[in-house]
Amino acid sequence: MGRKNKNSGDFFWVSYADLMTTLFFIMLTLFILTVVYLKVEQNVIQTKLIEYENILKVKEQFKPLQKKNSGFVYLENCDKYVAEDLLGEEIFEPNKTKILPQFEDKTIQVGKRIQGLLTEMKNNNPGLQYIVILEGNMANRWDMSISKESIWGYKVSYERALAVYDFWLQNGIDMRGNDDVVEVLISGSGFNGLCRDEVEENNKRFSVQIIPKVKPINE
What we know:
This is OmpA-like domain-containing protein. The protein is of the alpha+beta class.
């Protein structure tokens, strides 16, 4: 009987040792997985911080536009900069796409300022890309009788933006450049669009938005 109890005790300790060994490997595996997970999370956080710093760096480039005599005015209600020389001006003939002669010089100056700003941003932020949206706008009638979804309105407003783009090219102003960093999108919002002038006639205009494109770090 005593021998039998001794064998039972040996079996217990062998089983206990196997159990502890198994638990050790389980804990070791969990520890390794935890370390790997924390390392991955740390890399993700660091990547996001770098991307955020890049965004803040780009935003700093717009600060010169807030200074006096910059040629631009900041509209807080829609977070947009507009050209001071063309603010509230009817730069197009009614229902037409040709720029009025008295606004040609101002349009050239605005184009040169924007081109200069893009050049500065590209030099200060290598590796980033930019989208320039050139948007044409339309003014409705005094009684607002034209539908905001008028196809004709979208067509003419697009042609106004295209006319400005062609006018700039004719005067040596090329927003795209030769480095494939800037993409220009020509669009028309018709009788729609944000930040329209309260004086409806003043919406015979165009607007330009510069959108920095921050590439993910892992690209």
